[in-house]
Amino acid sequence: MKKLIYLTLGLLIIGFTSCKDDEPIEPGKKNSGTEASSASMDFTINHTVGDQDFITGTQYIVGDNDKATFSRYAYLLGSFYLTTQEGTEVVLDSQYALIEAHNGMTTFTLTDVPFGTYTSIGFSVGLDSETNHGNPNQYDNDHPLNSNNNSLHWGWTSGYIFTAIEGKDMEGNESISFHLAGAQNKTDFVLATEFTHGEAGSEVILEYDIAEMFTAPSTYSFAIDGHTTHSVSDPVTTKLFGNMVDVFSLTSATSK
User: What are the beta bridge partners of residue 168?
Assistant: First the structure.
């Protein structure tokens, strides 16, 4: 009788232990009871126009000596990844950022970034084709890709506007409105660095030079090239996306 009781108790203990082992693992945990293996990475993007800080409504000289003010400068970032010292790309899936330089919305955070030492940061202005033509209603109200939140969506067929630049040509006394889109125009960036991302997380500071959009490699002229585009493939769109490749530079990437 005692043997039967001991056997029953033993089975109950084994069953209880098995149940505890099957408990779900929290995000950022290697397994139950161990320390986190990932942390957040905070980004700040400082916007300039050449050697001047960007301020909404301020007049700047851009492109072919054009005088312009900007009332809106917004864009979408995605396709984030980090490269390890071994050359492995750590892809940070389904994380996006909405930047609105005109109203000071220039910071964002990437979550669940694995610990490690990284040698480059990669991302894109714009979205892949599947995301670009996906349902914007699937996202929460404050999500970067929610169309009511970003005001950068043309519809399911045309997808998202990747960059919206609005303002005024002061000499020509005409409005400027460049809505740049098209999955084929998704522009990728890779910024070299070296930093260690640990328990306290890390901080990345980038610079975005608006002047580059109108300067290199092709000088843009409002009078010659035009004041507007709402196309994915016209000459204005092609020229501005071609100039976009040099807008970003890395100021710093450091552990907290």
Answer: 69, 175
